[in-house]
Amino acid sequence: MPATESTHWLATGILIVMLSLTGCGFINTTRVTVNDLIAPQDVVFIVPGKTTFKEIVTHLGAPNALTNTALGAVVAYHFRDAKHTRINLGWPSQFFLPVSPDLVLSGGGLGADVFQVFFDSHWVAQTSAFAHHTGGPSFNPWPF
Amino acid sequence: MGMFRADQSPRSRPYNRWTIFGGRLVLAMTLLNGCAYTRGTLGDEVKDEDVAAIKKGETTRTQVVARLGAPDRIAQANGQDVFQYYRYDVKGGSLLLILVNFSRLNIKSDDLYVFFNQKGVVDDVVFGKRTKQLMFQFWPFGD
Q: What is the ipTM for the molecules in this complex?
């Protein structure tokens, strides 16, 4: 299965889990994390044209996906951080009204990050990069 | 604040202590609505002894499949066939209070890659077991 397909599968699964974890209180906060964060300082040891696949596995562990290109193999490390907050402003009304209407504000985000390393035919790293995203998720229930 | 004066009689101290303890207990019971633990896995566990049994330059593709089963993915990279076995482990915790609910779900994966040479013999084995560090957590904030 290509790396992009597995990424979509994982992202869909996380969203389903987040929604199913949402409870029925006044305020709900949910967080889902997948694997450990890889920061830019964690990969400074990778020197293009020098660092081998073995050395990268020793530092970062086994990758989550491996694909082949015309120029060589590409390995990918996936890590995710999803945050979701839900406030039901109608929840307190159950204490003084016969019915409690729901007035729900909710928001969240899925911080999907991928770190990829491109190798030549001898398993020597040629380049590496993080996927570019607009920023990490936050606990902010304001949807507007 | 006379209740906590230093010159209060010894008989009244235990009463006050128990009152405070009881008050805290009632408060906790009122606020703590429940908690939940969730666990889920995807794929079979890759055992260390199975990985150790795979010998570079000796074990064949047939023997790997016989021991570990069919791979979850088969890839080709740099002229080598690569078998990938993976497993996902999920641990979730929910702290359900009256007003606020906290939930956190942690997911980690184990990945095993077996590289074969042109003759179908194992050339390399890469195994990462992240699920060993997987924890149940409630608190969603911070790291």
A: 0.72
